[in-house]
Amino acid sequence: MSQHSTGARGAPERKEPDGPLEDLIHSQELSVLRSVASSARLTEDIALSLLNRRDLPQQVLDDLSRNGTTMRNRKVMMGVVSHPRTPRHVTLPITRHLYTFELMQLALTPAVAADIKFVVEETLISRLESISSGERLSLARRGSTRIAAALLTDPETRVIEVALDNPHLTEIWVVKTVMRDDCPHPLVHAVCNHRKWWLRRDVQIALLRNQQTPLARAIAIAEVLPVHVVRDVLGHSRLQPHIKAYLADQLQRRVEKRKQARTADPDPSTPAE
């Protein structure tokens, strides 16, 4: 990988530092640290030790990113990108040349700034169609929230099922995806049968609005939701007409049964739906 391709523009000419680099990386002098970062003698181990310093000035990180020899090392490259004080103009160009799992690691690193994570996630999402099934499965299993959400519409059912089990996936993303007009049938089927998601009220409401939700699951959901909620949802649902008609009939039966129960036992404490 060339210096130009990683965003490194070539280290400025600096005098080689005197003394062992492994000692000089602990210096508090900016000029010394910049000389170390630019040194042709800088090895992977020393560079990584330097990057362990959270107090590195931005100029040092900039110089290190221009050290073409050292930046050919993937660990050093990742260390520069993930360092909290690396300037944006250094970090962003390098992210375009990282491998899929390096990007995933960055997306899950707490120290990485939110805007950098966003760019990393966007880069990963843009690659989803071109990476292998195995890589998508790994991303579905370990990826960040936005990555897992993007994989809910994957063409492979097994990837969708793994993404639904991703610990970073949140309810709001499941709801948003199920509510989409182009929501794939495998996702609706997987959510309907998922031990966790189909029990969440907002997900249940989203399923009642989706035209692909099967009758059996729609009935099960309608039975556990309050009458007024089901009535409101059916008014804006894209469910198949025969399913909506069946649920409306069941809803009316439920209301009548409740009225009969109140008539037989006029207890004011009996809850109304």
Describe this structure in words.
The protein has 273 residues and is an all-alpha fold. It folds into 3 domains: 1-11 and 26-96, no CATH class; 114-169, no CATH class; 171-266, no CATH class. Helices cover 58% and strands 0% of the residues. It contains 17 helices and no strands. The protein has helices at residues 21-24, 30-38, 44-51, 58-65, 74-82, 88-95, 100-107, 114-127, 133-142, 145-150, 157-164, 171-178, 185-192, 201-209, 215-224, 227-234, 241-264. It starts with 20 loop residues before the first helix and ends in a 9-residue tail after the last helix. 35% of the residues are buried.
Q: Secondary-structure blueprint of this entry?
A:
Blueprint: H1 21-24, H2 30-38, H3 44-51, H4 58-65, H5 74-82, H6 88-95, H7 100-107, H8 114-127, H9 133-142, H10 145-150, H11 157-164, H12 171-178, H13 185-192, H14 201-209, H15 215-224, H16 227-234, H17 241-264
Notable traits:
single chain, 273 residues, mainly alpha, 17 helices, 58% helix, 0% strand, elongated, disordered N terminus
